[in-house]
C-alpha cells in the first residue's frame, strides 16, 4: 500500500462517473482551476457518508467562492452511487472505483474479508486529500471506520489555515 506524503503529486486517475461517462483528475484540474478535495467514502449504503456528502453539498457555494472543488470516490457500484447522487441532489463528481485501483494508489484503508470485525462487507474507508492546483497533496487524513472524519466546517478551517500559511 502506498503512503502519500505532503508535497507529493497525487496519483492521477480516470474513473467512471456515477451518472455515466468518464472523469479525469488531470482534465478536471485544468478545466476547474483551484484546489481540490479528493474524498473517498464508504458507499451509498452508509448513512454517515450520505450525511457528510449532503453537508458538503450545502456548503459548496462557500468552497467554490474560494476556488475549492470536490471529487468523491467509492468502491461502491456505479448504479447505487448514481441513485444516491440523484436522491440527494449532489453536484460534485462522484466516481466508482470498483477495481479499488485508485484506493490502493492513494493508500486508503481497505476493509476487506481479513478485517478484524464485520462492517458491511468489503469497502474502502473514508480518506481526505486536499490537492493544490497542480495536484500536489497539501493535506490528508485517513480513517479506519466511519467516525472521526472532518465535516464541512473543519474542511473550511483546514483549507483556510493552509492557504494562510502557505510558504
Detailed description of the structure:
The protein is globular. It has six helices and nine strands; from the N terminus they run E-E-H-E-H-H-E-H-E-H-E-E-E-E-H. The model has no long low-confidence stretch (mean pLDDT 91). It has a five-stranded mixed beta sheet with strand order 5-4-3-8-9. A two-stranded antiparallel ribbon has the order 1-2. A two-stranded antiparallel ribbon has the order 6-7. It has a single domain, classed as Glutaredoxin. A hairpin with a 5-residue loop joins strand 8 (127-131) and strand 9 (137-142). It is 34% helix and 22% strand. By secondary structure, it is an alpha/beta fold.
Number of strands: 9
Mean pLDDT, as a whole number?
A: 91
Q: What is the CATH superfamily label?
A: Glutaredoxin
Low-pLDDT runs of 5+ residues are none
> Fraction of residues in helices?
25-40%
Secondary-structure content class: alpha/beta
Q: Which word captures the global form?
A: globular
Query: How does CATH name the architecture?
Result: 3-Layer(aba) Sandwich
Order of helices and strands: EEHEHHEHEHEEEEH
* Number of contiguous helices: 6
Beta content: 15-25%
Q: What is the CA-CA span between the terminal residues?
A: 30 Å
CATH class annotation? Alpha Beta
What's the CATH topology label? Glutaredoxin
* Rg (CA only): 15 Å
How would a textbook summarize the main sheet? Answer: 5 strands, mixed
Summary, kept brief:
The protein is α/β, with parallel strands linked by helices.
